[in-house]
Amino acid sequence: MDFITTHHIIEAVGWLAVLFKLATFSMNSMIWLRVLVILSSVCFIIYSALFQIWPLLAIEITLLSINAYRLYELVALRRLVTHMTDESEADFSAAMAYGKKRVIQSGDVLFEKGDPVDSLYYLAEGLVEIEGQNVTVPAGNLFGEMAFFNSSAARMATVRCVEDTVVYELNEKRFTRLQYEDPQFAMAVMRLVTKRLVANAAQTQGA
């Protein structure tokens, strides 16, 4: 009788794991989806360990580790978005780990208006000027990113180095990879693009 009771409890844990797994298909929230998958894996781990189903145990332990890490990333990203304010200083320095370093002399043109768009730039040292807009970009900023969000796929202005300059050049593939691997960088870029679009719209209305 004790064996049957224990057996039924283990069976119930297995069915509970199935129910958690099925519930994931009705989730719209990625966080809750990960939570349910983790609960399902925990139940399957208990079930497979007690019934000694070793392949299932190995798979579920692996899935539990992966989903726990993904859940941590999602929660960290949500916390980052929640605490990011308009006054918080954007940090684009992660671009140095992905970009190609270039050293450019004062007075040289980095790209001209109408050039095809193939890269954006992180300005590590120096100062550049966006000609025709009376705008200078100091070190620590991105520039050239707006063209990636423009269907014309052509540079909208000429950029000239005012000082000896060090930039890190990122092509579209590296830029996309960096945004995926560093959510904080991706959020900073989104805020930068939004800020510059608002500024451009204000200038257009004031013209």
UniProtKB/TrEMBL annotation:
One of its GO terms (cellular component) is cytosol. PROSITE patterns: CNMP_BINDING_3. Residues 80-178 form the Cyclic nucleotide-binding domain. Gene3D superfamilies: Jelly Rolls. The chain crosses the membrane at residues 6-24, 31-47. GO terms for molecular function: DNA binding; DNA-binding transcription factor activity. It comes from the Bacteria. Keywords: DNA-binding, Membrane, Transmembrane, Transmembrane helix. This is DNA-binding transcriptional dual regulator Crp. It comes from Roseovarius aestuarii.
